[in-house]
What does this fold into?
Amino acid sequence: MAQDTYMGTFDEVSKYNISLNYAERLWLAWYTYMQNDVLATGIMSFVMHEAIYYGRSLMWAIVGMIPYFQKYKIQSAKIPSAYEQWQCAFLVLLSHVTVELPQIWLFHPLCQYFGLSTTVPFPSVYKMAYQIAIFFVIEDAWHYWMHRAMHWGPLYKNIHKIHHQYSAPFGLAAEYASPIEVMVLGFGTVGSPIIWCCITGDLHILTMYIWIVLRVCQAIDAHSGYELPWSLHHFLPFWAGAEHHDVHHERFIGNYSSSFRWWDFVLDTEAGPEASKRRRERKMASMKKAQ
Ligand SMILES: [Zn+2]
Ligand SMILES: [Zn+2]
It folds into this structure.
C-alpha cells in the first residue's frame, strides 16, 4: 500500500517499531502521516470531542425513547421534545465550530509549551489512572467555586442563565452555555492537567485526552435526567451524577460541583428537599439550644 495513505504509513511504522503496541503504532502513524503536529493534534481533538459529545448524547436520546427507562427519569413530568433536542444539538454544534474550533489550533503549541509528551510508548495505565483521578478532584473544586460565582446576580443574568434554559436537562444540554461560561469552566478541564504538568513535568497528551473524554461523559451523564440502578453514584456515594445536577437545574440553587458531592456537603450548599429538611432541623436545634 502506498505510503501516502494513513494505512500505508501505519504498515511502514509497524515494520520498524515492533516493540510498540497496536494503539501506539496507530498514534505514531497518525503524526507521521500528518507531518504537521499542530494539525494532527487539532483534528484529533476536534473529531474526538464531537464523536464523544454527540455519540454519548445520542445514547441518552435513545434511552429517552424507550418506555422501559421512563421509571428512572428524575423529573418524570418533563420530557424534552425532539424539537428541543434538535435545537440544542444545533446550537452546541454552532458554538463548537465558531468558538472551540479556532482555539483548538492553540492546543498543540500549548501542550508543547508546558512540556506535555506526545511521543510513544504511552505511559502505564496505572500512571494515567492516578493522574486522571487527581484531575477530577482539581476540576471539581474549580467548578464548584466558578459555578457558585456564576449564580451571583449579574453573572447569572449575563452569562449562566443560558445554561439554565432547561430546568429538566438532557444529555445534549451539557455544553449548552454562553461561550464565556464554556471558557471559564473549561479552564478547569484543560487547566488542571496543565498545572499538574507544570508542577511535576510528567504528563502525556494521551492522558489528557482520556481525561477530557471522561470529563465530557461525566458532564453529559450528569445532564442525562436519568438515575439508573447502575449509576456510578450507587457504588461511589461521593460521586455526584445525574441525581445531584438534575436538582440544580430544577431548583436553580445549590449543588454547584461537577463530579463529587463533598464541596456542597461541607459548605452546606446541597440542594433538594432532603437537604432543606436537614438545614431546617439544624436551625431548630440551634434555636432550642439558644433558648
Ligand atoms: Zn447553575
Ligand atoms: Zn447543568
Observations:
- The radius of gyration is 22 Å.
- Residues 36-290 form one domain.
- The pocket of zinc ion (ligand 2) is lined by residues 163, 169, 223, 245, 249 (CB under 6 Å).
